[in-house]
Structures are given as C-alpha cells and as structure tokens.
Write a structure and sequence with these properties.
By secondary structure, this protein is of the alpha/beta class. Helix content is 39%, strand content 15%. The strands form 2 sheets. The chain has an 11-stranded mixed β-sheet, with helices on both faces. The structure holds glutamine.
C-alpha cells in the first residue's frame, strides 16, 4: 500500500489513476498488519468505509478520503468507548457534529482510535484495549491522549484522523509521532457529540502529515453549529486558498521560559535551528519570557480545573442510562457498583481530586482560585500577543519515552514547565499547532506555534513556511 496526502489521493481518484475499491482492499490489509504492531484501533469499521465509499463522487477534495476518529466522538450505530470500561458497550444513537460534517464532505470512516481513558492522560497507556505503540519505534509510546489517532496517521494508514485536545492531547502525540497536530481556537469547531473531558478547555482538532491537508480538514469542520452554543458565528476562511509561506511581516515571540528548560543538547540545537530559520525567512523573531511562578502554576491550575470539570461532566456516567451496569438493590447501589467497576484507579483519583476542589468548603480556595490563576496566566499571554502574532516553543524536551519510562507525574521544572506548557493554548483558547522539526536518535521531534484567537490562518502560514524549508512533510513509518 502506498501512502498519499489528501490532495494527491484526491487527484488519483478523480483521474481514475487508482481504483478506489482496490485502494481500500489494500488499506484494510495494512490495517490488520499495523493493528498487530501498534494496537491503535478500538474498532475497525471496514463495512462502514465501503458503505461510505459507495457515495463518493471524487469531485471534491475529501470525497472518498479515508479517515479515523478518536473513540470519544459519538458515531451512530458504531461502538464508542472513549477507551473506558464504563462505555465498553456503548453504541450511540447519534453522530457528533464533525462526524456529520466529514460525512457530508464525502470522507470514509476506517475506524475508531484508542485513547487514554476518557481523554485523561498523556501516554495512551491507560486505554482499556492496552497501550498504543509508536510507529517509529514500537518500544516507545505514541503519546496521549489521542495516541491511536496519531499512530494511524504516522504509520501512513490514513491521511488524517481526529483527536481532541484538553491540555495537549493532540499536540504531544503529534510531536512524538512526527506529524502535524492542530488544536484550533476554542469555539472554532462544534463539540456537539464529543464525549467531554473539561468543557472550558476541550477542543476538536486533527492530525495530518502536512499543513495543506490540515487546511482542508479544518475548513470541512469549522463553523457555527446551533447544537453547541459555544461554537462561534465567525465566518470560516478558505484556509487552503489563503495559505502562504510569505511570513516576512510576521512577528514571532520565542518563549524562552519554556525553551530554557530544554536539557537534551540535540533538541536544543534543533530548536535554535528553527529560530534561525524563521529569522532567515524574514520574520521578526525576539525572545520573551513569562514570570516563572506563573509558568510553574500552569500544571496545578490545569489539574484542578480539568479534574473539577471532568468530575462534573462524568457524573452522568452512572450505569443507569447507558454504559457499564452492575447489579444493586437500589438506584444508589447500582450507581456505586457501576462506577466502582467502570472506572480505573487513575480516573477515580482524578474524580476524588475534582470532588475535593468543588466541595463547598474548598471551592473558593481551590476551584475558584485556579480560575483566577488561569486568568492571570492568560493576561500575561495576551501581553505577548499585543506585540507578536505567534509564540514559538519546543513541543517537548524529549523524544517519545520508552513504554516503561512513560508516566504523567514527575516534579522538576523541566517536566512541570516544558512538558506542560502546551495547555497555555487551552487556558487562552488560542490556536496551537505542532509540526515536525527534525529527528533525534532516530525519533521525530517537533516545535509548536501558537497564534491569537481565531487567527488559524496565521498559525497555518507560519507552520507552512517552516515545513517548506525543513522538508519534513508527509513522513510516516511502517516498520520501526
Ligand atoms: N495529559 C493531559 C491530561 O491528562 C491532557 C489530556 C488532554 O488534552 N485530553 O489531562
């Protein structure tokens, strides 16, 4: 099976240079092989893909294009587990808004991808179906929580997949897997039908192998949807038509509060090279900082807000209406037994924390305080955006960790600041894109560009200019 971008596959289909049916036959053979190697799928939707293919006319860019959904997008009649035992037999009766949008555009659903349980994690080791492995080296994690989606794109199976991003769940795995991951502005895409994690942070986003494909996918999904009152009324620009690599009038801020924490010399020199490249491309590039106490507050603030909102959102997972149900004499007992059995320990820990922060005696000094600190952090970011269009940072201080080394709780500045700064984009709701910037020890590494609210185009242009110079578009790994 040969791997193509959306644009190339579209041309081949349209001009009858590839027989679509044969292409999908090959694709599903490769899916079987890659599933054994990477464990990225919860469900393979082969019949659905062929059914979708029947409607394809191949005249528009996405018609007949295969794609994968993270398993927290509701799909009518198709198992949707969010990789949790709690939802292990849940078959939705409706589609998420973006699923309908992509169907309208003619896309064919190949499968539902594994994730950290309910989106809560950064390793994809907490999925009910077991860890997802990295296509470049299967002794390493793909990252999380959208690890399955990242792995199916990075192994070249499909040109795009949807993820969701609450703290960094698209951008971290994108970086670890050597592909593009984009979390647009909060409100740019309807979240109707996305199983929530933390509503003030959750964002629909995608993985592709190049920036042009990302423009196509974003255009198909963005826009107002009356079923999600937080979705924006703003017009959706033609991202692809407006795409340019001329960034000579762009002002880029290098956030050294993050890049100063890099310990790995190869990752540091790669980052410095990216900075130099942007200068060569004619952009104004300057260093900026944020107060260290605010940088150190990102993780605890995130932890309190995300877990509080998750605790509230997931109170509906009670075994009564749908999902995992255990026996009990009374409704209360059914709920207690179902929830005790349905959630793994790390989810329970997060719910305990969320309940603690929301309890009336603690709410002011925990949940409300975290909201105030979030506001301070966002105000500091906005000060940077008064003078700069883009904030540039390294995506991570390491390559994808080995499976046995990966965990979510280390406590030094390198971890606290460098590995958690991406949720600045969730705090502020700003568009944030990760793209590959090179390789260290045979593994991909990446940088992140973050723009102002609703300035997706600027972010895409900034990334496109770098992508062209680095020549790392369309990379994938089938055998690592
Ligand atoms: N790793 C972070 C967490 O566990 C982010 C998850 C996400 O963005 N969904 O909360």
């Amino acid at each position: 099976m040969i791997t193509y971008s959306i644009e190339d596959l579209h041309v081949l289909f349209k001009n009858n240079q590839i027989n679509p049916k044969n292409y999908y036959d090959e694709l599903f053979k490769e899916v079987v092989f890659q599933q054994k190697r990477l464990n990225a799928f919860v469900t393979v939707t082969k019949d659905k893909a062929y059914e979708d293919l029947k409607d394809a006319h191949f005249h528009s860019l996405l018609s007949g294009i295969p794609f994968v959904l993270k398993d927290n997008y509701n799909t009518k009649g198709i198992l949707t587990t969010a990789s949790s035992k709690m939802l292990s037999d849940y078959i939705p009766v409706y589609n998420a808004h973006v699923v309908d949008q992509l169907k309208k555009a003619g896309c064919c659903l190949v499968g539902k991808a594994s994730m950290d349980e309910l989106g809560m994690g950064g390793t994809n080791k907490t999925a009910l179906t077991g860890p997802v492995l990295n296509p470049w080296d299967s002794s390493r994690i793909a990252g999380g929580s959208s690890g399955g989606s990242a792995a199916v794109v990075a192994s070249g199976l499909v040109p795009f997949a949807l993820g969701s991003d609450t703290g960094d769940s698209i951008r971290k795995p994108a970086g670890f897997c050597g592909i593009v991951g984009f979390k647009p502005t909060w409100g740019r895409i309807s979240r109707y039908g996305l199983i929530p994690y933390a509503s003030s942070l959750d964002t629909v986003g995608a993985f592709t192998r190049n920036i042009r494909d990302m423009c196509i996918v974003m255009e198909a999904m963005a826009g107002r949807d009356d079923r999600d009152m937080t979705s924006s009324m703003r017009e959706v620009p033609c991202y692809l038509n407006n795409l340019t690599d001329d960034i000579s009038d762009l002002k880029i801020a290098v956030l050294t509060s993050v890049s100063d924490e890099i310990r790995n010399p190869d990752i540091l020199s790669n980052f410095q090279f990216v900075v130099k490249t942007y200068k060569k491309l004619g952009a104004t590039v300057e260093n900026v900082t944020m107060p260290v106490e605010l940088m150190r507050s990102i993780l605890p603030t995130y932890t309190i807000i995300a877990n509080s909102e998750a605790t509230s959102n997931h109170s509906c997972l009670d075994g009564i209406k749908y999902g995992n149900r255990q026996d009990g004499e009374t409704p209360d007992e059914i709920m207690i037994h179902s929830r005790t059995d349905g959630f793994s320990d790390h989810i329970k820990r997060r719910f305990i924390l969320g309940n603690l922060a929301l309890a009336s005696e603690n709410q002011e000094r925990m949940f409300r305080k975290a909201q105030k600190v979030r506001r301070l952090i966002v105000e500091e970011l906005n000060k940077i955006y008064e003078d700069y269009d883009i904030i540039l940072t390294p995506n991570s201080g390491s390559v994808a960790p080995l499976l046995e080394d990966a965990n979510d709780d280390r406590l030094n500045d390198e971890y606290i600041i460098l590995e958690n700064h991406l949720c600045l984009g969730n705090f502020a709701g700003t568009p944030s894109l990760t793209l590959p910037s090179g390789f260290v020890d045979g593994m991909p590494i990446a940088v992140n560009v973050m723009g102002r609210l609703f300035e997706e185009q600027t972010v895409l242009n900034c990334a496109y200019a770098l992508e062209k110079v680095l020549g790392l578009a369309n990379q994938y790994s089938r055998e690592g």
